[in-house]
Amino acid sequence: MFLVGLTGGIASGKSSVLQIFQQLGCAVVDVDVIARHVIQPGYPAHQRIVEAFGTEVLLENGDINRKVLGDLIFKQPDQRQLLNAITHPEIRKEMIKETFKYFLQGHRYVILDIPLLFETRKLLKYMKRTIVVYCNRDTQLARLMKRNGLSLEDAEARVQAQLPLKDKVRMASHVLDNSGEWSNTRRQAILLHIQLERSLEYLPLRLGVLVGLAGIASLLYLLARCLLPSPP
């Protein structure tokens, strides 16, 4: 098994592309889903967020108001760093659990949807391949304004707060261009899936595990022989 990091930019269509891979039966670890999960009431991150940001970030039912919290950290980089320090360790734990589950199921590769893959670079060294979902700037702004009901000025501010997509494209192993028709994007994703499935990059880890298991079995056999009583 090998790891494939999937990333993009705000309103580039990354989540929609991820759905294509899921429909194809790929093993997918969605960091956004995990991030929503670990801040639910009853989880350690939820309590720490309330302690750090106050009860104004809560909805009436006790859930975190992600929009209020998002607006707060967007305007204050130090607050964004604080939130990351609270949530990222919990997110990484869940990512490891899900990835190991897919390994046991025998998947050849696992896609990890990591929005800040190139920005933080903390997980980049573990990725065998990287995929960037790209769209041109005008398309990105138009989609963001329509989706979030933002003015052009606000949309541009959100886009500029991220690493430019053109920079991510230069660092990626693969690029899926989502600037045009959706059917074209889907075709690109299917072809890439076929390429990744045919790759033999999953073999080293699988062979390493088999060798390790064989070694353990041999050791147990020798121990068992040593513990058996000697013949009279």
From TrEMBL:
It comes from the Eukaryota. CDD domains: DPCK (cd02022). One of its GO terms (cellular component) is cytoplasm. The chain crosses the membrane at residues 203-224. Keywords: ATP-binding, Membrane, Nucleotide-binding, Transmembrane, Transmembrane helix. Belongs to the CoaE family. This is Dephospho-CoA kinase domain-containing protein. The gene is DCAKD.
